Structures are given as structure tokens and as C-alpha cells.
Amino acid sequence: MGTTTVETTKTSEGAGHESRRASLHRALRGRLRWVPASLRTRILAWFIGLLAVATAAFVVVTYEVLLIRLDQRIDAELTQEAAELRRLATGNDPETGRPFGTDVRRIFEVYLERNVPSRQEALVTIVGGRPFLRSRQVVPYRLDSDQELVARWGSLREPDRGRVETPAGRVEYLAVPLRAGGESEGVFVAAIFRDRLKGEADAAVRAAGGVGLAVLLLGSLLAWRLANRVVRPVSALTKTARSISETDFSGRIPAQGRDEVAQLGRTFNEMLDRLERAFASQRRFVDEAGHELKTPLTIVRGHLELLEDDDPQERRETLALVMDELDRMGRIVEDLLLLAKREQPDFLDLATVEVGGLTDDVQAKAMALGAREWVLESRGRGVIVADRQRLTQALLQLAQNAARYSEEAEPIGLGSAVADGEARFWIRDYGPGIPLAEQENVFERFRRGSGERRSEGAGLGLAIVRAIAEAHRGRVDLESGPGAGAVFTIVIPVDQPDHREMGAP
User: Fold this and answer.
1) Cβ pair 423, 492 in contact under 8 A
2) CA angle, corner 303, sides to 300 and 309, nearest 5?
3) In which element (H, E) is residue 369 found?
4) Statement: the pTM of the whole predicted model exceeds 0.70
5) Cα 389 from chain centre
6) What distance in Å separates the CA atoms of residue 339 and residue 468, rounded to the nearest whole number?
């Protein structure tokens, strides 16, 4: 039985811990639900919270300043009353022209006749331990009728600055005894009902609080409008982002003004423009690549289907044609892979290249393209940072195009030059030239010339040339006209930033 009781107790304790843990989890989730998820709500909450704290701080500081100034004002008034009494006591009686001497009654009479107390101030005089005269101004409580106060003040031998609680609230006072021959002849008391004056400060603070509340309400409305203005572009950004699909990039955010939100909208629109162009280019690339690869596949399939087993000669011819088409398809795939690799960091193998030596090598290799007159027009001097193999590949592609689009009797020129921080390599032919309407698109993928000697290639050669030039942070210039031949020039900088960062020579 004892064992059962202990196990039951442990089970109960475990259940209690689990229950408390579940309650804590529920409470935490409940608190997290109160955290506003909306950006507009958070902006408004922060703004109203800060404005409320600032308003409360303003009211509290104002109230404290008013109380400090009230106490300073009371001290100044009480001190002034005592100073005026002392000056009067050392003077002469205005009726007789003689000094007051020890006639405190006459001093008090003259003082009260001449001085009018301020609001919420009472002047009380005591002679012989009994109330004598007081100011006639109506006050909320007769201090001279309070026997305890009169007895306290009547026994003074030294000035007393203090405070006392009365039915009318707290009273600040300054009691000054007038002495003659070492004995107190009378006591002058200047008293101010501080709580009554404090009520005026309270009213001022309440007015300031009302103004602060109005400012808080007005600020909340302005904050709501401001939050809407800030969040509206973000909401439009979200809506536009949700409207974008794999085939529709037409959505744009209305961006007006020059603030950060407008800049965000314009930046997002620019990103959409780039994405739209990139996806359009990708779709066009896939379509064109599919079309180009479909032709050799169709040829191969058709000839294989017509292949006869009993005719060795026809089989050899068919196999030769199939292999040629497969080779062409392989070249297309290699070119496509080359273009796809252009954005990768290892596309170029940078090293120092002597321009003159590269020009000589290109001329020697171009001679193997055909029995043509290859004219070296210029041989540049200097050293550049580049990928020798890629530049050779681009220049030989241009040389092959020049040989393809010009007559065998026509010379082909090539050359190089280095000037103004740039290296220039060109291939010149004297063929039919390129119409102006085609020059803008001649470097696009799968674009072929429309001349009489139309190329049988895939239309990727000039796209590869441009990719190599742009990988070197350069460009390809074209000068051509109908019947005037064409000059393709690869222009690249002498040095490459990446090469300098790697510390290459």
C-alpha cells in the first residue's frame, strides 16, 4: 500500500507540472496574440505610445515646475513681508514723526494700513500672547482664531519659517517677533494658503493635460494617415508580388515621390523588368534551341527509318549523313553549354598575354580555315590581362564567318592595336556586308545572315564572340554596310579588375 501511495503521489506531482506547463504555454500564446501583426498597426501603436509617454512626461514636468515656482514665490512673498515690517519698525510714525520705539501696536496698525496682502495671503499680529490685528482680506480660514497657533506664535523668541495643516489645507508662514529690551513685544505672522494656490497650478496642469490629450488624438489621426501612406506602397508591393506568375511579369508598383518607399517601389519595378527580360530571353532561348535541335534529330530519325539492310552502299551513306548531323548537334550543344557558362567565375582563365604574339597565332590558325589571302593590317604592341584561348576562339569565329560570307578571291584582313587603356582586335572582310536592319540583332542567339551565302550553322557564333568580349568587360563593335563588307572589332580593357584583386602580375 505504501508503494502505491508514493507512486500515486509522484504521478499527481507530474500531472501538476504538466498542467502548469500547459497553462504557461497557453498564457504565452495568448500574449503573443496581442502582438499586432500588421505593419500599419505597429507603426500606429509605436507612434501613439511614444506620443502618450511624451505627453505624460510633459504634464508631469510642467506640474513639478509649477510647484517649484509656487514654493519660490511663497518664500519670496513671505520674506518681502518680513523685510517691509523691519524697515517700518526702524522708521518713524507718520502721524507724530517720532520713532516707533517699542510701540508694536502702532507699528502693526501702520503696516496693515499701508500693505494689502496678495491673494490667498493672511497677515496676523499677536501682542501679549493674544491676537491683535489681522488683514481684512477674506481667507478660507481664520488663523487668529486658532488658539493652538496663536499660543505657538505668541511664544516665539526667534523668527520661524514653517508650515501647518489647517481645515483649509496646508499653510506656509513666516512668524517674526518684534523685541525690545530682550523681550518679545509682539509677533508678526505672514501666512499663505499654499493648497489654494496649488489649486491654480492643478487647473493649469489639467488644461495642459487637456491640450496634450487633444494633441494625442490629433497625432493619432495624423499617424494613421502617415501609416497608411507608408504601408500603401508595401501593400502594393505584396499585391504585385502575389500577382506575378511564371508567365506574367506585367505587374508594376506605382512609385511617386523621392522618399525611401518610392525608391523601394522603383527598385522593385526595375527588378521585375530585369526578371521579365531574363525569363523572356530564357523562353526564347529554349524555343530556339528546341527548334535548332529538332532539325538534325528529324533528319537522323528519317534516314534511320529508311535504312535498308541489303544495300551496304546506302547504309554507309546514311550512316555518314547521320554522323554528320550528330556532329552538328554536338557542336550546337557545346556552344549552348559555352553560352550558359559565361556567367560562371571560371569562364575565363586570366593571364598576361602579349598582343603581338596573339595576333600572329590567330593569323597562322586562320590560314587553316581556307586558301584565302589573310592580310595582317596591324600588329599591336603591349601586354594585356586576358584569357588567350577564349580570345583566340572568338577571333577565329569571326575569321570563319568572314571566310564564309566573302568570295574566295577577296582578301580578309586582321589586326590588333593597343591605345588609351584598351586593346582592339579586328577581322575585316569585303563581302556583301550586313544590312542596317540586321545589325542590331546579329549578335543574338540563333540569328543567321540573310545574304545569298546564308550560313548553315546554328547562329551561335557571334553570340559566343559577344559573350567572350563581355566576360572580359569589353564589347564587340560592328562597322558594315550593303556591299561594303564588314569589320568586327573586339575591344577589351588592358587590365581586368578581378586580376588585380587576386594579386596577379
Assistant:
1) yes
2) 130
3) none
4) no
5) 45
6) 9
